[in-house]
Write a structure and sequence with these properties.
503 residues, Thrombin, subunit H, Pdz3 Domain, 6-stranded antiparallel β-barrel, 27 strands, 32% strand, elongated
Length: 503
């Protein structure tokens, strides 16, 4: 082989080795193009697996996302129940309140009996495979019989626990099989604008699904003039109607985040108890059938900005003590009318909910330390909690701020001496001193702060107001821009106070 042939042979060998190496590398998926293709195939496989998981029913495990609300409905519906109840009530019929399920009277008869058996329905959802079910207390309240309908079957149910303050109840059914159930989520993590689905039996239309968003959080309101609930309600525009009560609100992961409870007399406004509230009372409901809460015995309301200025606070944080119930833990510990509670134990009290929720979560017999602002001084009082009595459930409830109007004039009050006749008419003690307000101008700063005709002014700051002379003397010393605390008494003897800014 000559020199040229040797060079050619060597070049061919080198070229063949390169081609063989590329073939081997391609077979081992080592090229950049092949890596990208493999990554794409892996991602598609993961996505397919995820879609498959989303189609499964929720039976004790939560999903993380959905492709369609239909997937979500298919997953949660098997664990949502209809709760049917029968009540015995007087023939005058039930009290139709917007929170209650629709109870309809039997057809009229010529001789109507003194009592009637009324049928009603609400909703609920299974929370464990052995048949524990959550619903609203007002759904099963005063029920003689409770029946649960689940996936076409009927079960007799037993009421195992109920709590009026949160309007939650726990019932139990016995089934021959493990039941599908819904996992509990985290309502605190909800954000305004998050998608939400409500499931229940509105107007007896079973397994109805509506979808909306979280419209607001932290809503509070009373029940038929009774106590303000402990629950900071979730507001939603998902349709909630009569019969939805007790049904679940679920997030897009299929987790319960609320319990449908109320509808307002307006379109697209419904309310639900946050599931975090349910989780807080669930252990006691299962173990004892009721909830025992700590109790102070005070009526409180939030501070306003003008009052924060009066107390020389940077922010309107704290809970004003509007009254102290007699023979209660608060009275025994020395809490007084007019105190501002700034903290409980090591927790700041920004508003009334902070104090209410903290105390209510403690057991009777436990002690708390209250940080109190009184007469420009901060003091600490130790209070031994007692059990919250149901009949005075409103004492720890926040008092709504009085209605306000624009104020342009100073005073604007029609004042009269507090005579014996006015004391008697107002239901006041005969020894009560003060000045009777017979009229309040709509332009008065006092009208702005909620004063109405019939109240008795009894004090301004540290000065006792016994008569008109006292009032005139104190008012004469006030300057424009001064902040003063005016104490007053409403007919019946309930005291209140409000901070007034002198115009």
């Amino acid at each position: 082989m000559n020199t040229k042939q040797q060079i050619l042979f060597t070049a061919l060998m080198v070229f063949g080795a390169l081609v063989f190496g590329m073939i081997i590398a391609g077979g081992l998926n080592l090229t950049e193009a092949t890596r990208a293709e493999e990554a794409g195939r892996a991602a598609a496989a993961v996505e397919d697996d995820s879609r498959t998981a989303q189609a499964r029913r929720i039976e004790g495990h939560a999903r993380t996302s959905i492709d369609s609300f239909a997937d979500l409905a298919e997953a949660v519906l098997p664990a949502v129940v209809t709760v049917e109840v029968a009540r015995i009530e007087e023939s005058s019929g039930p009290d139709f309140f917007f929170r209650r399920s629709p109870f309809q009277r039997q057809p009229e008869r010529e001789a109507e009996p003194d009592e009637q058996r009324l049928q009603g329905a609400g909703s609920g959802f299974v929370i464990s495979a052995d048949g524990w079910i959550v619903t609203n207390n007002h759904v099963i309240d005063r029920a003689e019989d409770v029946t649960v309908r689940l996936e076409g079957r009927e079960y007799e149910a037993e009421v195992r626990g109920r709590d009026q303050e949160t309007d939650l109840a726990l019932i139990k059914i016995e089934a021959e099989r493990d039941l599908p159930f819904l996992p509990l989520g985290d309502s605190e993590a909800l954000r305004v604008g998050d998608w939400i689905m409500a499931i229940g039996s509105p107007l007896s239309f079973e397994a109805s699904v509506t979808v909306g968003v979280v419209s607001a959080k932290g809503r509070s309101f009373g029940i038929e003039g009774g106590p303000t609930s402990f629950a900071n309600y979730i507001q939603t525009d998902a349709a909630i109607n009569r019969g939805n009560s007790g049904g679940p609100l679920v997030n897009t992961a299929g987790e319960v985040v609320g319990i449908a409870t109320a509808m307002a007399w307006a379109e697209n406004i419904g309310f639900a108890v946050p599931v975090d509230v349910l989780e807080g009372v669930l252990p006691q409901l299962r173990a004892e059938g009721k909830v025992r809460r700590g109790y102070l015995g005070v009526q409180i309301r939030d501070l306003e900005h003008i009052e924060a200025r009066y107390y020389k606070l940077d922010e309107p944080n704290g809970a004003q003590v509007q009254s102290v119930q007699p023979d209660t833990p608060a009275e025994k510990a020395g809490v007084e009318f007019g105190d501002v509670i700034l903290g409980v134990d090591d927790h700041d009290v920004v508003g009334t909910r902070d104090l209410i929720d903290y105390v209510a979560a403690l057991a009777p017999g436990e002690s708390v330390e209250l940080e109190i602002l009184r007469d420009s001084k901060r003091i600490t009082l130790e209070v031994v909690l007692e059990e919250r009595p149901a009949q005075v459930a409103q004492s720890e409830a926040p008092t709504p701020a009085p209605p306000r109007e624009e104020a342009t004039d100073w005073l604007g009050l029609e004042l009269r001496p507090l005579t014996a006749n006015l004391r008697q008419r107002s239901g006041l003690d005969r020894r009560q001193r003060g000045v009777y307000v017979s009229g309040v101008s709509a332009r008065s700063v006092f009208a702005e702060r909620g004063f109405q005709a019939g109240v008795v002014i009894s004090g301004i700051d540290d000065a006792e107001i016994r008569d008109l002379d006292d009032l005139e003397r104190v008012v004469a010393d006030l300057d424009s821009g001064d902040l003063v605390r005016v104490e007053a008494i409403v007919p019946g003897g309930q005291r209140f106070f409000s901070v007034i800014e002198v115009p």
